[in-house]
Each structure stands twice: as structure tokens, then as C-alpha cells.
Amino acid sequence: MAHTPKSHRVTIVNTKQVIACATNQTILQAAIAAGIDYPFACATGNCGTCTSRLEAGKVSLLPRGDAALGPQQIKAGQTLACRARPRSDLTITWLSRAPG
Amino acid sequence: MTVTDKRNRAAAKLLADVHAVTAKEGLTPSALHAIKLKLVALAGKKELFPLADFEMPVAEGRNHPLLVEDNDGHGLYLTISLPGKEAAPHDHGIWCVNAAISGRERHRFFRRTDSMAKPGYATVEQVGEVMVEPGSGMAMADHDIHSTVVVGDAPAIGLALYGYALARFPSVAWYVPQFNSVRATPSRRHVAMA
């Protein structure tokens, strides 16, 4: 029987939507799959377009470039939706443009 | 003469040679190939690039400027990318040449296959692949599309030469095959012109 990864509830503040995000999925992947117009460009942790504020919850980050998300940003609660996988239910706000 | 002095002198010589090539034949495929060979030769001089002189990434990827020309000229960087660091298919909007000092980075090359009629939508297909490792490199014209990923357990450390400095880059188009998307990052050219 195929193993189904655990998933967490992700609340996207900009659109007031709650989506499911598997633990092996990035928040951006889950958002796009749910039809949400989440801002992004590279989707690989290089450009910073999907920079978001983690309002609550925990994520693990995939490899990324230093210029895309600095230590001060992480300290300030920011993350990259394209690199962040959920480790708990979480609430997130994208920062790069007004809600779509 | 210190290693830094030797490195700076070698970087200046490379840029002078690059300008000589492009002045003679423009930015043709053969010119980019010639530039690549020069960059590969410089990257082979490992004694000029001791790791102690370059901080490792805080995350997984970092660029160290070696020589950034005035007057909107070229930018030469030492790049360090840790295992697993990747970049989706993208063009730079400006030519680019890479050469490895150590480690291995796989470059895949793509071409766009959609009609470009729908904003934000794009499909690409792979048309080539090269492993950039010591003794080799790769060259791209302004709108060639490549993706990168560091393979193996060692950092990929290399030289990257761009037609413009990174701080003065034009818009970069990113293609994400998983989403069939194309998104452009803002041009930094206006900053250069300010």
C-alpha cells in the first residue's frame, strides 16, 4: 500500500483560504495546486518573490540562495513559500504584492 | 605579491582578454566559446582561489564579486553552491559563462515550446545537458534557458562571468515546468542608469 504523507492545514491570510499541504510538499506547490495566485517566479529559492511572513507554525526549508532569504529575515519570521515545507499547521502571509 | 593581488591581476587580464574577443567578433557563439575556454583556464588555477578567502553560504548559495567593471561593464564572481542547491529553468537576459573550480553542477538547457500567447504560461523542453566540473564550463547567450543543480556531496565552487554585474541585471525569466509558468523578476537596469 502506498504511503500517504501526513499533511498540515495552511492558512493563507491574503486570500483567507485554508488548504492542505503535505509534509513532502512546499507551501507554494500546495497553494498553486489549490488554484491560489500565490506570487512566485523561480520556485527554487533564488529570487525571493514568494517571501512570506510565517504568522504561526513551523516549517523546514529546502536549499536556497543566501540573497533570497537572509538570517535577519528569518529572525523576523519570514520564509520562502517555495522552499518551506510544513512541520505543523501554520498561518502565512505573502509579502510581495497586495492580495490577488 | 599576495594571492589576492595575483587573483585580482588574473581577473583583470581575463576581462581584458574577453573585451578583446568581443571587440573582434562580437557576441557570437564562437566568441562565447572562446570566453568559456579562458574562464575554464582561470578556474583551473586553484591556487588563486583558496577557500579561506571566501565565506561559505549562510544558506546554500553565495556569490563573491571578484571584479565588477565600471561603466555598466561585465561582472566576474566566485560562486559557492552547496549540495542540493538548485535553480529552475531561467534565462538571464544577458550572456553568461561558468567554469568549475571544484565540485559538480549539472546544467540542463531548454527551449520554449508554447506559442507565448498566454501571459504567465510557458512550456519548455530539455535540449541539452552538461556537467560543469573541474576542466569544463558552459556558455549561454542572452536568452538561452538553463537550470542548475549541485550534485554529489561536495560544494560546487566556480567562476561566473556575466555581461552585466548582478546588481545591474535585466529582467530574468523563470520557467517552472511543474506549474507550466513563466515569471519575470524586475529589471535592475534602471538602478544602473540612475
- Largest sheet descriptor of chain B: 5 strands, antiparallel
Mean pLDDT of chain B: 96
Q: What share of residues are in beta strands of chain A?
A: 25-35%
- What is the number of helices of chain A? 2
Low-pLDDT stretches of chain B are: none
Adjacency order of strands in the biggest sheet of chain A: 2-1-7-3-5
Instruction: Compute the CA-based radius of gyration of chain A.
Output: 13 Å
Low-pLDDT residue spans of chain A:
none
Give the strand order of the largest sheet of chain B, numbering strands 1, 2, ... along the chain: 1-2-9-4-7
Q: Please indicate the percent range of residues of chain B in DSSP E strands (runs of 2 or more).
A: 35-45%
Per the principal axes of the C-alpha atoms, what is the gross shape of chain A? Answer: globular
What is the first-to-last residue Cα distance of chain A? Answer: 40 Å
Element order, helices and strands of chain B?
A: HHEEEEEEEEEEEH
Structural class of chain A: mainly beta
SSE order and pairing:
The complex is a heterodimer of chains A (100) and B (194).
Chain A: E1 7-12, E2 17-22, H1 27-33, E3 51-56, E4 59-61, H2 71-75, E5 78-80, E6 84-86, E7 90-94
Parallel strand pairs in A: 1-7
Antiparallel strand pairs in A: 1-2, 3-5, 3-7, 4-6
Chain B: H1 3-25, H2 29-43, E1 61-68, E2 75-81, E3 86-90, E4 96-102, E5 104-112, E6 124-132, E7 137-140, E8 145-151, E9 156-162, E10 173-176, E11 181-184, H3 189-193
Antiparallel strand pairs in B: 1-2, 2-9, 3-8, 4-7, 4-9, 5-6, 5-8, 10-11
Helix pairs in contact in B: 1-2
